[in-house]
Amino acid sequence: MRHLGARISRIAPGRVHIVLPARPEVTQQNGYFHAGATSAIADSAGGYAAYTLFPEGADVLTVEYKINLLAPAVGDHIEAVGTVLKSGRTLTVCQLEVYGVREEDGSRTLVAHGQQTLIRVGQTATER
C-alpha cells in the first residue's frame, strides 16, 4: 500500500476504508485509476476489515476475491470500503466497494463492487 500511496482513513470493527489519491503512477492510458490499483486497495480494505475481528496473534490471507468494475474510476481519489459480512473461525467473507470521489463537490460514484473470502492463519495462545 505504501508503494501505491494508499492509506487507511477509517477503522471500525469489521469495516476499513482505504484512500488512494490520484496521480499518474496509479492511472492507465486514459487517465482513469488502473484496475490493478483499484483492486489492490479493495483487497486490502477487506483484509484489514477481517483482521479487526480476529483474535490477537492471528493473521489474514486472501483466499479469493471477485470484483466488478462498474464505471471508469475517476476523481481526486478513490476510496475502498471493506465490510465483513460473516466472520467465521477459519473463513471470513467481506463485501468490497470502491468509490471515485471528487473533493470539489464531495460527489461519490461507485466504481467497483466485489466479494472476498479470507482465511485466518496463525494460532493464539489459547488455541495451542
Shape: elongated
Q: If you consult CATH, what is the topology? A: Thiol Ester Dehydrase, Chain A
Proportion of strand residues: over 45%
- The string of secondary-structure elements, in order, is EEHEEEE
Q: CATH H-level name... which superfamily?
A: Hotdog Thioesterase
Helix content: 10-25%
Read across the widest sheet, the strand sequence of neighbours is 1-2-4-5-6-3
- Compute the average pLDDT: 94
The CATH class, by name, is: Alpha Beta
Biggest beta sheet attributes: 6 strands, antiparallel
How do the helices and strands line up, and which of them pair or pack?
Blueprint: E1 7-12, E2 15-21, H1 35-51, E3 59-69, E4 77-87, E5 91-101, E6 108-121
Antiparallel strand pairs: 1-2, 2-4, 3-6, 4-5, 5-6
Protein name: DUF4442 domain-containing protein
Family: Belongs to the thioesterase PaaI family.
Domain Thioesterase: 30-99
Q: Would you mind describing this structure in some detail?
A:
The chain has 128 residues and is mainly β. It has one domain (7-127): Hotdog Thioesterase (Thiol Ester Dehydrase, Chain A). The protein is 13% helix and 47% strand. It has one helix and six strands, in the order ββαββββ. It has one helix at 35-51, and strands at 7-12, 15-21, 59-69, 77-87, 91-101, 108-121. A six-stranded antiparallel β-sheet has the order 1-2-4-5-6-3, covered by helices on one side. A hairpin with a 2-residue loop joins strand 1 and strand 2. The termini are far apart. It holds the Pfam family 4HBT. This is DUF4442 domain-containing protein. Keywords: Hydrolase. GO terms for molecular function: fatty acyl-CoA hydrolase activity.
